[in-house]
Amino acid sequence: MYSWQNPNDRVLIAQMNSELQHAQLELLSAHCAAHQLRLRFSTDDLARFGQRDILRKSVQAATALSEYYASIEKKIPSAEAAAPLTPPTEKQILDAVARVASFLRQQREYYLHSAVPLSNHQKAIMWPYFSADLLERVRVVELQGKRLPNPPFYEEYRALGFVNLPDIPHMHSLTCLDVVVFNEKVAERTLFHGLVHTVQFEVLGLERYSDLFVRSFVNTKLHFSVPLEAHTFSLESKFAGTPAQPFSVEDQVRLWVRQKRY
What we know:
Elements: H1 7-40, H2 43-49, H3 52-73, H4 90-112, E1 116-117, H5 120-126, H6 132-137, E2 139-142, H7 154-159, E3 173-176, E4 179-182, H8 188-204, H9 206-220, H10 227-241, H11 249-258
Parallel strand pairs: 2-4
Antiparallel strand pairs: 1-2, 3-4
Helix pairs in contact: 1-10, 4-9, 8-9, 8-10, 8-11
């Protein structure tokens, strides 16, 4: 068993947590893909018409992962069952929407002075997916030696039972309208993810984006099940998986808006 008192163990613990975070991101991507299946197809149709070998392998993988993480959860001393949530009132929801919008606007203003345009290399990679105008306007910040904070109102909402709020210090980035702030070194995939959110802000506007996000989070209780986020992960996965087949992110976002999928 590792010990914080052993310097060698501390190195291994840091490596373990790095690999844990990588696994969590891959699980998040898989969860979002499965969530899209759940939105579009019934379990009866999947069971009846889904390709049998893919279904069996998927079920086996999901079951094995569930059992593995459940065994870890049992060993966490502080793990407690979450208390049932009292549904928030409309006033509380509107207040949360206003707070989210204000936080994003404030973060944009704070980081704008240190933000820089995309490099020509970044633009060249992203132009098949995003408009030239957007790529010219977007600014990015790569933090050095610090990470983005969680909003000050988080503790209030955690006390109400919302324990799965997005943990911003551990996210790759936060998109604040047209400014994308990165906790870590900018990579192509994480840049794409951030730019998808800039398109969502551009199409929806800050207030509507915030309203859709808050209401979806209240319903799903999970950040990555919010359609705005699930769609972003889905497009990110498509970008990473088939780079030779470009697509318009704006067209995809507007399609989801028309279909009322957000």
